[in-house]
Design goal:
Order of helices and strands: EHEEEEEHHEEEEHHE
Structural class: alpha/beta
Number of helices: 5
CATH superfamily: Bira Bifunctional Protein, Domain 2
Largest sheet: 8 strands, mixed
Oligomer: single chain
Strand content: 25-35%
Number of domains: 1
Strand order of the largest sheet: 7-8-9-10-6-2-1-11
Radius of gyration: 16 Å
CATH topology: BirA Bifunctional Protein, domain 2
Distance between the termini: 15 Å
Mean pLDDT: 92
Length: 220
């Protein structure tokens, strides 16, 4: 396989969360065996709360609001749903020579640079995982990061709030933080073109990770 080429698929419909995890686990094994290229998957899920390996039960405020799924990614509780862009990255960091902290730094740069391109100033916070913007005199979270590494290959990835219903965060303390301290791209800029933002993410992925993206027509 081409070590500099990453296949990517831009999903047009909502993807069931459990099916996405099953797909990623299969794909990790194929990448490890050298049977396919690394992979980037841009998608959205239906409403769900997911509990990472560090999730605390006290942070699940409304257990009956949406389906809750325990997952093997790192991190705590998070919300996924329509209007939130999820990017799953299946990247062989062992072959690339990254440690996990270095890879997370690249993810942070990817998100920050992409938001900058649409006029949003965002920052990483050494005390809190994710990407934040200053709004209403406080920092609010606009993007989350949660990874798993198996056989030197990452899966799961990032989520960026494009224009979700932010009230859907009120059933959890996302990543242990107050659910009120969440924002979206829509809250920060007047004009939003979601398709254009997809293209910005793809462009900056190639710049940050120094990889060539190869679009595929169907998931394989």
């Amino acid at each position: 396989m081409n070590n500099n080429k990453v296949d990517y698929f831009l999903e047009k419909k909502l993807v069931d969360y459990l099916k996405s995890v099953e797909f990623m686990e299969r794909k990790v094994n194929e990448i490890y065996k050298g049977n396919c290229n690394e992979f980037l998957w841009l998608l959205e899920h239906d409403n769900i709360y997911t509990a990472g390996t560090s999730a605390k039960s006290k942070d699940l405020l409304k257990p009956n609001k949406f389906k809750v799924h325990k997952t093997n990614r790192g991190g705590q509780f998070t919300y996924h749903g329509p209007g939130q862009k999820v990017a799953y990255l299946l990247i062989n960091i062992r072959d690339a020579g990254y440690d996990i902290r270095g890879f997370i730094n690249l993810l942070e740069d990817w998100i920050i640079n992409s938001l900058k391109d649409i006029g949003i100033k965002a920052v990483a916070d050494k005390d809190h995982v994710g990407i934040w913007v200053k709004k209403d005199n406080c920092k609010k979270k606009i993007a989350s990061i949660g990874l798993r590494v198996r056989k030197g290959i990452t899966f799961h990835g990032i989520s960026i709030n494009i224009n979700p219903n932010l009230e859907n965060f009120n059933g959890i303390n996302p990543c242990g933080n107050d659910h009120k301290n969440v924002t979206s791209i829509e809250e920060n800029i007047k004009i939003l073109n979601a398709e254009n933002f997809n293209n910005i993410l793809l462009k900056n992925f190639e710049i940050i990770f120094k990889k060539k993206l190869n679009p595929i027509k169907t998931l394989i």
